Amino acid sequence: MADELFDLSGKVAVVTGGSRGLGRSMCLAFAGRGADVVIASRKIEACEALAAEIEKTTGRAALATACHVGRWGDCDRLVESAYDRFGHVDVLVNNAGMSPPYPSLPEVSEELFDKVLAVNLKGAFRLSTLFGTRMAEAGGGSIINVTSIAAVYPGADELPYAAAKAGLNVLTAGFARAFAPSVRVNCIMPGMFRTDIANAWSSDMVAAAMRTLPFGRMGEASEIIGAALYFASEASSYTTGAILKIDGGTAFPAA
């Protein structure tokens, strides 16, 4: 019974930021459960490599697509590419994100601020609007937003990113109402995970953060899979507007 609940056979899943880190793990997990996948990121070569791996190891179809989600034109093209190839989309994961370091708050440039909000928030809004509308017209689907505990537990080193992710939490609730009852919209809110993004953090930032981790370690990318499969599949048939924190207890430590 549990296996049937998490079955994605016949489904098509689109994952932005899908070529590495958490996105890569989700693409592999979805394909492993029977879904065809659309892998989108700015670097087409990485998408193509993962698509080839998925097709070889799972037998599922995988479409590699170059997409800068901060540009609405790219978002529109991603939607058309997915529907042209597969004819339908059942799962959208807004996973693309960026949090470039900055030396101090006064040195955050307008360009950096706008870029961070575009990639983390604006693109997710556009893709959710386009995919969600088509999903609703087709009778159902699931949108999964990937935010961050920075949305509720922000640090001084990541404020534009935290603001964007807080906005994406809000969009989760709003889109859940906008596309109800046929399309579910939920959110995974990760803490510190050992991915490529973590490589950009300073040693001082990592050391300070590690002292706050009740589990004493970062999460591994594979530890996001359970939540992703839950929200993508019929296992979450009565769940929408939910925000699931996966952070080893970091954001709300026990008193």
Condensed summary:
The protein has 255 residues and is an alpha/beta fold. The chain has helices spanning 2-5, 21-32, 44-58, 72-86, 110-138, 159-178, 203-210, 225-232; strands at residues 12-16, 36-41, 62-66, 91-94, 141-146, 183-190, 243-246.
Query: Average pLDDT, to the nearest integer?
Result: 93
Shape: globular
Number of helices: 8
What fraction of the residues are assigned to beta strands by DSSP?
A: 5-15%
Your description of this structure?
The protein is of the alpha/beta class and 255 residues long. It has helices at residues 2-5, 21-32, 44-58, 72-86, 110-138, 159-178, 203-210, 225-232, and strands spanning 12-16, 36-41, 62-66, 91-94, 141-146, 183-190, 243-246. 44% of the residues lie in helices and 15% in strands. β5 (141-146), α6 (159-178) and β6 (183-190) form a beta-alpha-beta unit. α5 runs parallel beside α6 (159-178). One of its GO terms (biological process) is fatty acid elongation. It is an enzyme of class 1 (oxidoreductase). It holds the Pfam family adh_short.
Break the fold down into its secondary structure elements and pairings.
Elements: H1 2-5, E1 12-16, H2 21-32, E2 36-41, H3 44-58, E3 62-66, H4 72-86, E4 91-94, H5 110-138, E5 141-146, H6 159-178, E6 183-190, H7 203-210, H8 225-232, E7 243-246
Parallel strand pairs: 1-2, 1-4, 2-3, 4-5, 5-6, 6-7
Helix pairs in contact: 2-8, 4-5, 5-6
